[in-house]
Specification:
The complex is a heterodimer of chains A (775) and B (292). Chain A has 775 residues and is mainly beta. Helices cover 4% and strands 60% of the residues of chain A. Chain A has four helices and 49 strands. Chain B is mainly beta and 292 residues long. The chains are: A mainly beta (775), B mainly beta (292).
C-alpha cells in the first residue's frame, strides 16, 4: 500500500514542471447535437492524444509547441476532421462531427481507431449501428446477443441472453444503463434482453484491466449509454416485427437547449391470442420496455440528464368456473418481473481541465408470483390469495471528477454511496370474506439493508512516448449491522508501443463483489435470487492478470489482438446440492460457501471496422473451474459454462445504399453437465417396499454435450421515402437448422427395452421479417 | 403469424445414438449401519451402467467377509429380503437378499466389510464404532407441551447425533413418533415446515445434531411430540451417536431425493466404499423414557 501511495505522490510531483497548453471542449454529432463518447483526438504523427469521456468532453494538455499544431479528430462511423490550431495558448474547441453512415457506401475515407495506441485492454466498443447490423433473432436485434459474439464472452444456453465473461458467472457482470446497475437484463426467460436497440447510443464491454472507477463485480462491466435526444430536429424510428413492435421519438423541446428521447417496445402475443380464447378465460404473456431521457443544457458548463427505464414481463392466466348454479369461482395465476432504473446526472465544467459529474441513481428489480381464488355465492364473496416475491433496490449518489493535471497525467477520482435493500423471499397470504380481510406477510428470508461506500483515484500516466500506464486504487466499504467488509483494490494497466501501430499490453485488477446471485438454472430465470453479503456469506473476490498484444495493419483498417488471462476467485457461493429457489428455508441455509474459481485462457481477435465489409473473427481457448469444500466431494470441477473452444465469425457487407447484409457463425465446445453414469440399490428407510434404485453421477460437470454451432443470416433493403427511410429486414436464425443441445437426459425406451440419451433442442431454423422506419 | 415463435418455443427431441455417457464399469455396492449391541445386516449388490437395459442387482451370489480389528471373524450369509419390481418400465422382477452376521457390534472396535464376486473388484467399507452418550430426561413443560432432555458427551470431538422418538403401539411394535422442533442448531433433512407458523416449528421423524453445539460437553434440547390418536404404552427419546460417514450419507441421500426438479444440480450420494458405491458406517444408541 505504501508503495502505491508513494508511486502516486511521485507522479504528481513529476508532472508539475514545464510549460504547456490545454485544448478542451465537447464533441458532438453535427446532425443531432448528441455528445459522442470515446472520440479520438490526437496529434498526427505522434502518440499524443486523448478520447472523449462518457459526456463527450475532452481535455488534452500538451507541451507548448513552437508553432501551430495539427489536431486530428476521428470516430468510427464519422468523417474524420483535422484542425490547424495556434499553439501559443489554451484553446476551447467544441467539435461537431458529420456522420458517414448515411452514405457509407460512397465514403472511402472514414475514421480509424488505432487500438494499438490505447492504454486500455480487454475492452470492446460497439455502436448502435454495429449492433443493428447483426442478424436478428425473431426480428429483434439484441445488444447482449451481440456481446456474446466477442472473444472471451460466451453465451449460456441456446437462445438466451445471459453472458459469461472469462469463465465468470452472469452476476459477476456489472450492467450499467446510463450509469445505473440493471439487475435482471432478461425478458421471456432470457430469450431477449431488456435493452431496446433503438434507444441505445453506445455499448462498451470491459473484461479485465478494470480502471479504478469500476467496482462491485468480478468479471466484466457492460456500459450501455442511451441516446440523449436530438437537439436540432424532431425524428423518430420504429419497427414492426413478428413478436414485437417499437417506436422511438426524439427531438428538441427547446432547440439546442433541451431535448428528449422516448422509446417503447411491446410484444403482442397476448393481444393476438385473446380473440381465440373462451370468454371465461384470459391467458397471455407480454413484455414491454419504456426508456425516457431528457437533457437540458443550462450553459456550456452545466448540463443535466434525466433518464428512466422500466420494463415488465407478465404471464397471466385467469378463468372462471360455475360448478353449481349461482356460484362462481374465478382463479388467477400470475408471474411478473421487471426493473425500474432512474438517474439524474449533472455535468459541470469547472475549468478546461476539470470536469465533474454528480449522479443520483435508483434501481429496482422485483419478481412476483401469485395466485388468487374468488368464490361468489348468493351475494357473498370469499377470496384467498397467495403471493411470493423477491426484490432488490438500490439508491445511490456518486460524484466523479476528470482532471487533466498536466501533459503526462490525467486523473479520474470520485466517491459514491449506495443503499441496498434486499428482500429475497417474501410470502403474503390474504383471506377475505365479505369485506373482512386477514393479511399475513412473512419474510421467508429476513430483509437485509446494507451500505456500500466507494472512493477511487486513477491516473493515466504517459510515462514516455512508448509507455503509458493507468494506475488506480479503489477503496470500498460494504457494511450492514452484522458485518463490515472494507477492501482496498489496486488496479494497473499498461501499454508499451513497439511501433506506432503495434503494442504490448498488460493489466492487473483486484475486485470485490458484495452482492451475489443465487441461480440454479444459469439461464437468467426471474426466479434467480439477488442476495447480500452477510456475516456468514463473505464478499466474492477475484484477481486477474492479462497480457496481450495489439497490431493494426493494412492502413490501420485491420486489427489483430491476442490476449491471455489468468483469473482466480475466492469466497464464491452456490446452492447446496439438491437445493433450489423452491425451498422455503432461509437462502443462507441453502448455500455452500468458501468456493474457489480458477480461469485462464487466450483470446484472438481479427477485426475490421472500416470499409464496405466489416466484422470480426474471434477465437477463445478457455478453462474455468470451481471448487467447494462440500460440492463434488471437495474435488475441483469444470464450471457449468466452461467452454474449451469458442469461435465467432461476424461479417457485415454494404452492397449499396439500398442493401446490406450480415452473417454470423458461432461454434462452441459442448457445455459441461453432470451425467448419470450408473444406478444401484440403497435400502430405502422410508419405503416399506424396501430397496430403491438410485443414480450414481459422474463428477460434477464431467460430461460434455455435443458441440454447438449455428449460422445466422440477415439482409436489409433500404429505401428513401417522402417521409424518411424504410428498411425491410429479413433474418434467418440457425440457417442450416442445426439441432443444438439444450439439455440431455437418459430415457427408457419401453418398446426397444433399452435406455438412450435423448437430446432436447430448442430452436430450429427461424426466419423472420421486420419493417423498420425512420423519419 | 404466431406459428413461428410458437414453433421456436416448442422443444424437439432427438435420440443420440452415437453419444456415450462415460461408463465407469459395473461395480459392487454395499450399505450397512452397524449399531453397537446389535447384529450386522448389509445390503450388497452391483451397479449397472446408466445406458444398460438391466436393473441393478442385489442377489445371493456375493461373498461378504466381516473383519473385526483387522481379523476375519465371520462370513455374512444371504437371506431373502423381498421381491423387487422394477418401477422403471423394464418389466423385470428379482429377488433381493440382505447379508447377515450374528456377530454383536461393540463400541470401540473397528469393523471392515469386504464383498467380492467373480468379474468384479473386491470392495471394502470400514468403520470404527463410537461410544454411546448419556441422555437424561429433565422436565416436561405442560403449557408449551415441550420435553427437555440433556445429552452429555464426555468425549468431545466432532461427532454427529441422530435424534428420534418412538412409541410402543398397543400391539407391542415400536413406531417412530414425529418430533416438533424449534431449535435452530438441529438439522432436519426430511421435514414439514409451515412457513406461516409464527413459531417456525419443524415436524420431523429424525433430526441431526453436531458436537459443535455442545457447551462443556452438554446439550439441552427442547422438543414436542406429535402422536397419532391411538393408544401408546411407552414413549422413548433416542440419541444415536453416529460416524460422520453416516451423517454425510444421510445428508446427500436426502439432497438426492430433493434434486429431481429441473432447477437443481444432481446430488451425488456420499460413498465411503473403496472400488464401489455405498456406505459402511456405525453408531451407538442411548435412550430415555419420556413421561406420558
Amino acid at each position: 500500500m505504501r508503495a502505491i501511495l508513494f508511486c502516486f505522490s511521485f507522479l504528481y510531483v513529476a508532472g508539475l514542471t514545464g510549460q504547456s497548453i490545454t485544448l478542451s471542449g465537447f464533441v458532438e454529432d453535427a446532425a443531432s447535437g448528441e455528445r459522442l463518447i470515446g472520440v479520438n483526438l490526437y496529434l498526427p504523427g505522434t502518440t499524443t492524444g486523448t478520447t472523449t469521456n462518457t459526456y463527450g468532453f475532452y481535455s488534452l494538455t500538451l507541451p507548448k509547441p513552437a508553432d501551430s499544431l495539427q489536431l486530428m479528430v476521428s470516430y468510427v462511423g464519422y468523417a474524420p476532421m483535422q484542425f490547424t490550431l495556434a499553439g501559443n495558448q489554451n484553446l476551447k474547441l467544441d467539435i461537431a462531427l458529420e456522420s458517414s453512415s448515411e452514405a457509407l457506401a460512397e465514403v472511402s475515407v472514414t475514421a480509424k481507431e488505432i487500438k494499438a495506441q490505447k492504454t486500455e485492454m480487454s475492452t470492446f466498443k460497439l455502436s448502435a449501428r454495429e449492433v443493428k447490423q447483426i442478424p436478428a433473432f425473431m426480428g429483434e436485434v439484441d445488444v447482449i446477443r451481440t456481446i456474446q459474439l466477442l472473444p472471451g464472452v460466451q453465451g449460456g444456453n441456446e437462445g438466451t441472453t445471459g453472458f459469461y465473461v472469462r469463465g465468470g458467472s452472469p452476476d459477476q457482470n456489472l450492467i450499467l444503463l446510463d450509469g445505473v446497475p440493471v439487475y435482471n437484463a432478461s425478458h421471456l426467460f432470457g430469450f431477449f434482453s431488456v435493452f431496446n436497440a433503438d434507444a441505445i447510443k453506445n455499448v462498451q464491454l470491459t473484461k479485465g484491466g478494470f480502471p479504478a472507477r469500476f467496482s462491485g463485480r468480478l468479471s466484466s462491466v457492460l456500459e450501455i449509454d442511451l441516446k440523449e435526444g436530438n437537439m436540432k430536429a424532431f425524428h423518430g424510428e420504429g419497427s414492426i416485427g413478428l413478436i414485437s413492435s417499437k417506436l422511438t421519438l426524439e427531438g428538441p423541446l427547446v432547440k439546442d437547449k433541451t431535448s428528449f428521447m422516448l422509446s417503447g417496445r411491446r410484444t403482442y402475443y397476448d393481444l393476438f391470442t385473446r380473440p381465440f380464447l373462451p370468454d371465461d378465460t384470459e391467458f397471455g404473456y407480454y413484455f414491454a420496455d419504456l426508456n425516457f431521457k431528457l437533457n437540458h443544457n443550462f450553459s456550456r458548463k452545466d448540463r443535466l440528464y434525466l433518464s428512466f427505464y422500466t420494463g415488465l414481463d407478465d404471464f397471466n392466466i385467469k378463468y372462471v368456473e360455475n360448478p353449481v348454479s349461482g356460484r362462481e369461482n374465478s382463479f388467477e395465476n400470475y408471474l411478473r418481473w421487471g426493473n425500474y432504473t432512474g438517474s439524474l446526472r449533472w455535468n459541470h465544467l469547472f475549468s478546461d481541465k476539470l470536469f465533474g459529474n454528480l449522479s443520483a441513481t435508483y434501481t429496482q428489480y422485483r419478481f412476483l408470483v401469485g395466485a388468487e381464488e374468488v368464490i361468489a355465492l348468493s351475494g357473498n364473496t370469499a377470496a384467498f390469495s397467495f403471493e411470493y416475491s423477491s426484490l432488490i433496490r438500490d439508491n445511490g449518489l456518486r460524484y466523479d471528477l476528470d482532471y487533466v493535471l498536466n501533459a503526462k497525467h490525467t486523473l479520474k477520482m470520485g466517491a459514491g454511496y449506495t443503499y441496498h435493500i434486499f428482500k429475497p423471499s417474501v410470502a403474503q397470504i390474504r383471506d377475505r370474506l365479505n369485506g373482512n380481510n386477514i393479511d399475513s406477510i412473512l419474510n421467508l428470508s429476513r430483509p437485509i439493508y446494507t451500505n456500500d461506500l466507494v472512493v477511487y483515484l486513477e491516473d493515466d500516466w504517459k510515462v514516455n512516448k512508448r509507455l503509458r500506464v493507468n494506475l488506480g486504487l479503489n477503496y470500498a466499504r460494504y457494511f450492514l449491522h452484522e458485518a463490515d467488509y472494507p477492501s482496498l483494490q489496486p488496479r494497473l494497466s499498461a501499454r508499451y508501443l513497439l511501433t506506432s501501430n503495434w503494442s504490448l499490453k498488460g493489466s492487473y485488477a483486484y475486485m470485490n463483489q458484495f452482492v451475489h446471485l443465487l441461480s440454479n438454472s444459469g439461464i437468467g430465470l426471474p426466479t434467480d435470487l439477488w442476495v447480500s453479503s452477510t456475516e456468514k456469506i463473505k464478499p466474492q473476490r477475484s484477481e486477474q492478470i492479462a497480457l496481450g498484444s495489439v497490431r493494426n495493419f493494412f492502413n490501420d483498417e485491420w486489427e489483430l489482438s491476442v490476449e491471455g488471462y489468468y483469473k482466480w476467485m475466492s469466497d464464491l457461493i452456490d446452492y447446496k446440492e439438491g437445493a433450489s429457489f423452491l425451498s422455503t428455508a432461509d437462502w443462507q441455509d441453502n448455500v455452500e460457501t468458501g468456493g474457489k474459481g480458477e480461469m485462464y485462457g487466450i483470446e484472438f481477435l481479427l477485426r475490421r471496422n472500416q470499409g464496405k465489409t466489416t466484422g470480426w473473427l474471434a477465437y477463445t481457448l478457455a478453462y474455468s473451474t470451481r471448487q467447494f469444500p462440500n460440492l463434488n466431494e471437495g474435488f475441483r470441477f469444470p464450471y457449468k459454462y466452461d467452454r474449451r473452444h469458442d469461435i465467432s465469425l461476424v461479417v457485415n457487407h454494404t452492397f449499396s445504399k439500398k442493401m446490406d447484409a450480415g452473417l454470423t457463425w458461432v461454434f462452441g465446445s459442448g457445455n459441461a453437465f453432470t451425467a448419470p453414469t450408473a444406478s444401484f440399490f440403497v435400502n430405502n428407510r422410508f419405503n416399506p417396499l424396501g430397496v430403491f434404485e438410485v443414480d450414481r453421477f459422474s463428477r460434477r460437470n464431467a460430461a460434455r454435450m455435443p458441440a454447438y454451432h449455428r449460422l445466422d443470416l440477415g439482409i436489409n433493403f433500404h429505401k428513401k421515402t417522402r417521409w424518411g427511410r424504410r428498411t425491410w429486414n429479413i433474418s434467418i436464425y440457425n440457417a442450416y437448422s442445426r439441432q443444438n443441445p439444450y439439455y440431455l437426459s437418459v430415457q427408457e425406451d419401453l418398446i426397444a427395452e433399452e435406455r438412450q440419451v435423448v437430446q432436447v433442442s430448442l430452436f430450429p431454423i427461424i426466419p423472420s421479417v421486420s419493417y423498420i422506419f425512420k423519419f | 403469424m404466431y406459428l413461428l415463435p410458437l414453433l421456436a418455443l416448442l422443444s424437439c427431441e432427438k435420440i443420440l445414438t452415437d453419444y456415450k455417457i462415460p461408463d465407469p464399469g459395473n461395480k459392487l455396492t454395499m450399505e450397512a449401519l452397524l449399531l453397537s449391541g446389535n447384529t450386522i445386516t448389509a445390503l450388497v449388490g452391483e451397479s449397472v451402467y446408466s445406458l444398460d437395459a438391466a436393473s441393478p442387482k442385489a442377489s445371493d451370489d456375493y461373498t461378504v467377509y466381516l473383519f473385526e480389528n483387522n481379523i476375519l471373524t465371520d462370513t455374512l450369509e444371504p437371506q431373502f429380503y423381498q421381491t423387487y419390481y422394477d418401477p422403471n418400465g423394464r418389466g423385470t422382477t428379482q429377488d433381493i437378499y440382505l447379508y447377515h452376521s450374528q456377530a454383536i457390534v461393540q463400541s470401540g472396535k473397528n469393523y471392515r466389510l469386504e464383498a467380492s464376486k467373480s468379474g468384479f473388484q473386491t470392495i471394502k467399507g470400514e468403520t470404527s464404532v463410537v461410544e454411546p452418550v448419556n441422555v437424561s430426561y429433565v422436565t416436561y413443560d405442560a403449557n408449551r407441551e415441550r420435553y427437555r432432555v440433556r445429552i452429555e458427551d464426555a468425549q468431545g470431538g466432532d461427532d454427529w447425533y441422530l435424534l428420534r422418538a418412538y412409541y410402543k403401539r398397543a400391539g407391542g411394535t415400536f413406531e417412530l413418533a414425529t418430533m416438533i422442533l424449534s431449535d435452530p442448531t438441529v438439522e432436519t433433512f426430511d421435514y414439514y415446515n409451515d412457513p406461516f407458523d409464527p413459531d417456525q416449528d419443524v415436524y420431523t421423524d429424525e433430526a441431526f445434531l453436531s458436537d459443535e453445539y455442545f457447551r462443556d460437553g452438554t446439550k439441552q434440547l427442547d422438543f414436542g411430540i406429535s402422536l397419532p390418536g391411538e393408544e401408546q404404552d411407552e414413549l422413548y427419546f433416542q440419541v444415536i451417536r453416529i460416524t460422520e460417514d453416516y451423517y454425510r450419507f444421510r445428508l446427500t441421500y436426502s439432497a438426492y431425493l430433493n434434486s429431481d426438479d429441473f432447477f437443481s444440480e444432481p446430488a451425488q450420494i456420499y460413498s465411503n466404499i473403496s472400488n464401489g458405491y455405498g456406505v459402511v458406517a456405525s453408531g451407538a444408541a442411548s435412550q430415555v423414557e419420556l413421561p406420558r
